[in-house]
Design goal:
Layout lengths: L6 H22 L1 H21 L4 E9 L22 H8 L2 H11 L3 E5 L6 H7 L21 E9 L8 E5 L4 E5 L5 E6 L3 E4 L2 E9 L5 E6 L2 H11 E5 L6 E8 L2 H59 L6 H28 L7 H24 L4 H35 L5 E9 L8 H26 L6 H5 L5 E6 L2 H12 L11 H4 L4 H16 L7 E5 L7 H13 L5 E5 L7 H4 L9 H5 L5 H4 L1 E2 L5 E4 L8 H5 L2 H13 L2 E5 L8 H6 L4 E7 L5 H13 L6 E7 L24
Parallel strand pairs: 13-20, 14-18, 14-19, 15-17, 15-18, 19-20
Antiparallel strand pairs: 1-11, 1-12, 2-9, 3-8, 4-5, 4-9, 5-6, 7-8, 10-11, 16-17
């Protein structure tokens, strides 16, 4: 019986083992994690150094308060006084009418850029600081390396060329030629010369480049260019209700950004003035249409009053009548003014506007007072009533005409000096350094991404890997572990030497028990050798079959080195390579592949004495696989196999049978019935609990009892260390003269 942990200890381990294993896995893979993180950090640093710098250009525009009416035509009180909304002005700033005009004025839909060398061309061009042109790198003169400049004065194309990339190549003495994207020539010209050929109208204002240098020239859509610059334009109000708007743009070329921001600000101010001027013109036109009508009404009133006086002689207005006349004239004049303001509001607002409703209420109140005076006038003599009415019409007409004439003159003066309510406070200026890329931020993000990616891969592999990593995990399946063989660096070195030797066994001696007898893996196999004495007590024969769930478990390594350490005790050991499909025991022992072996022996082509060969280890003999047969399972089931094993057992102290993996083929189950003792080899991190359970179950179905397991390739990791496994680790213990 083998002791197991107490139930409460197992529950405690199960509760915390996942987190501890994951943390341990990170410690085990710290160097790959550090390497990947450093690689990403280096990549972030290189990107930060090579990325195109972006500069920020800003201007400041002020939106002042304005009145709702035109100067010279103000309405009473502050009924329509208003403050221009900053949000409205921001939308006007980014409107197509403003940005589209800037696109037309600055030819922003024309893109002319020098062709740079891929990946490093932009970086090298930015590094060029001196005057003139940079020297071409490796003689590649078709690329621009720094200092090149092109300015296009005009570039209009027919629809067939719209949006297509054309190639302009500089020549000697200001000459150039233009080609399409496939290299077909389109036109030739010189700087300053207007060209109209092939549906292309081109005029280059300035071209500074080495002959042979190429530029990319394209004419974009006006609407798409407007969208691009609308997206690039950043408009924000400074503070709350300040009327100050920041106009900003980020661009790799600060001079270009300054030109664009200044042009957009200038056009916005100009359009604001034009809107104000149009408003003044509309009001002046309204007054000029009203003046002739008021003049005609005044003349009619004067003629009517004169006719009345001629017919009735000189009639004086009494004191009471004069008082009523003054009140009536004042009310009529005020009502007329409000009617004109109503006509002005009809052009600008709907009847539901608060200012419009307020004006109607004022007119209604004055009309009521006018009706009251009219009722008072009915009590006067008829002569006085007529004279009062006619005199009122003349005085009201005179007052209104005079007032309109004065206001028309005032508005005419205002139009001559019209200024908008928008002004540029600060011209466009570029901030000191680039605002992007943020090298520190990129470096930090790249480092974090690299670290998280590496950690994620490690944890994902850990979670998806079903391989067992502790001997206790095998013992919990009811299978005792007789040896935990540590991973051997020397054995890994032997494998690499064998690959470099191109299969020449004479050049290498890969058997670990001979080359490195003090290796911890060999010491673990010596402890297994001691345990074999007790394992095989009372066994019916001296045969030991060693199998495994699948390939890569290392059972051939265990068989060869176990046979060697047993033979070193003075016993005769026969190592039989039962894997007649892929057996490699002869290579592990550093021996040539023999012409005869187990397959030949079972097929009757040789006898046992001819098939068995001595090995470099004294007392250890090898029966190799022989020629690969077409029917290995049938050969193992033949009675000859039992006879061979009986002869071998009679002439040797121990017969070790290296079988194929059970889950791959059935050979191991056939061989297991010929041996009294069977062990299986499980590989650290490779063999899963499910595979071991299936292996044990398959052997049990064939009436074979598995005595125990050998845990091979165990690594000393932080993820598994500290769980009571210290007894399975071995330390290298060399003599003093080693």
């Amino acid at each position: 019986m083998y002791p197991t942990s107490a139930p409460h200890q197992q529950e405690h381990e199960d509760a915390g083992i996942d987190l501890r294993k994951l943390l341990g896995a990170l410690l085990d893979h710290k160097w790959p994690i550090i390497g990947v993180t450093a690689l990403f950090c280096l990549g972030g640093a290189l990107y930060g150094m090579s990325a195109t710098p972006i500069y920020r250009t800003t201007a400041l525009v002020q939106i002042e308060k304005k009145s709702g009416t035109v100067p010279g035509l103000e309405m009473g009180g502050d009924v329509n006084a208003q403050t221009s909304s900053a949000r409205t002005e921001i939308e006007l700033l980014r409107s197509r009418s403003v940005i589209g005009q800037a696109v037309d004025n600055l030819h922003l839909d024309v893109r002319a850029t020098p062709q740079r060398f891929p990946l490093i061309g932009d970086y090298l061009a930015r590094r060029h600081r001196g005057p003139g042109l940079a020297e071409p790198f490796l003689g590649l003169e078709e690329y621009a390396w720094g200092g090149e400049k092109i300015e296009v004065l005009r570039f209009d194309v027919d629809p067939q060329w719209a949006g297509k990339r054309l190639v302009l190549t500089a020549a000697d003495n200001g000459a150039f030629n233009l080609q399409d994207g496939e290299g077909r020539p389109l036109l030739q010209g010189r700087v300053g010369e207007a060209i109209d050929q092939q549906g292309i109208r081109l005029q280059i204002h300035e071209l500074q480049a080495r002959p042979g240098t190429r530029f990319t020239l394209s004419k974009g859509s006006r609407l798409s260019t407007i969208r691009t610059y609308r997206g690039a334009l950043q408009l924000t109000e400074v503070g709350g209700d300040t009327g100050l708007i920041t106009v900003a743009m980020n661009h790799p070329d600060p001079r270009h950004a300054s030109r664009v921001v200044d042009e957009i600000s200038r056009l916005f101010v100009r359009q604001n003035i034009e809107r104000m001027s149009a408003e003044v013109d509309g009001s002046l036109e309204f007054l000029r249409t009203q003046l002739p009508e008021v003049r005609r009404d005044l003349e009619k009133a004067e003629d009517a009053l004169n006719d009345y006086r001629k017919r009735h002689g000189s009639v004086d207005i009494g004191m009471e009548t004069g008082s009523v006349l003054n009140q009536a004239v004042s009310l009529e004049t005020r009502i007329s003014e409000l009617r004109m303001q109503q006509a002005e509001l009809d052009r600008r607002f709907t009847p539901e506007h608060p200012a419009y409703k307020t004006l109607l209420m004022q007119i209604q109140g004055l009309t009521q007072r006018k009706n009251e005076i009219a009722r008072r006038m009915q009590g006067l003599p008829e002569t006085q009533q007529a004279l009062l009415r006619l005199s009122r019409d003349v005085q009201v007409g005179t007052a209104i005409y005079t007032q309109l004439l004065n206001r028309a003159q005032e508005i005419d003066l205002v139009r001559a000096a019209t200024v908008g309510n928008v002004r540029i406070v600060d011209q466009a200026v570029t901030d000191g350094g680039p605002v992007a890329p943020d090298k520190t931020f990129i470096l930090v993000v790249a480092t974090l991404v690299g670290a998280l990616l590496a950690i994620g891969v490690v944890l994902l592999r850990k979670l998806l890997n079903p391989g067992l990593e502790t001997p206790e995990a095998i013992e919990q399946l009811g299978l005792p572990v007789y040896a935990a063989v540590p991973f051997s660096e020397h054995q890994a070195h032997f494998k690499s030497r064998r690959r470099r030797a191109a299969g020449s066994p004479a050049q290498v001696s890969p058997l670990l028990a001979l080359g490195q007898p003090h290796d911890p893996a060999v010491e673990a196999l010596r402890s297994l050798r001691t345990s074999l004495h007790f394992i095989m007590l009372g066994a019916q024969d001296n045969r030991l079959a060693i199998s495994g769930p699948g390939p890569q478990a290392g059972k051939s390594f265990v068989c060869a080195n176990l046979a060697a350490v047993v033979a070193q005790t003075g016993k005769r050991v026969l190592l039989v390579d039962v894997d007649m499909r892929k057996g490699q025991l002869h290579r592990l022992l550093g021996m040539e592949e023999a012409g005869t072996g187990l397959s030949d022996l079972l097929d009757g082509r040789c006898d046992l004495a001819d098939a068995i060969r001595p090995t470099p280890v004294e007392g250890l003999f090898l029966l190799s696989r022989g020629q690969i047969p077409p029917n290995p399972s049938e050969l193992l089931m033949h009675p000859n196999f039992s006879a061979v094993l009986q002869q071998a057992s009679a002439s040797h102290d121990l017969v070790i049978l290296d079988t194929p993996p059970l889950l791959a083929v059935t050979d191991a189950a056939i061989v297991g019935r010929q041996a009294a003792t069977t062990l299986i080899v499980a590989r650290f991190g490779v063999s899963s609990a499910r595979e071991i359970e299936l292996t044990v179950g398959r052997f049990a179905q064939n009436g074979i009892e598995i005595k125990g397991a050998i845990f091979n390739g165990m690594e000393k990791r932080a993820a598994t260390y500290g769980y009571g496994h210290a007894a399975y680790y071995h330390y290298e213990y060399k003599p003093d003269n080693a």
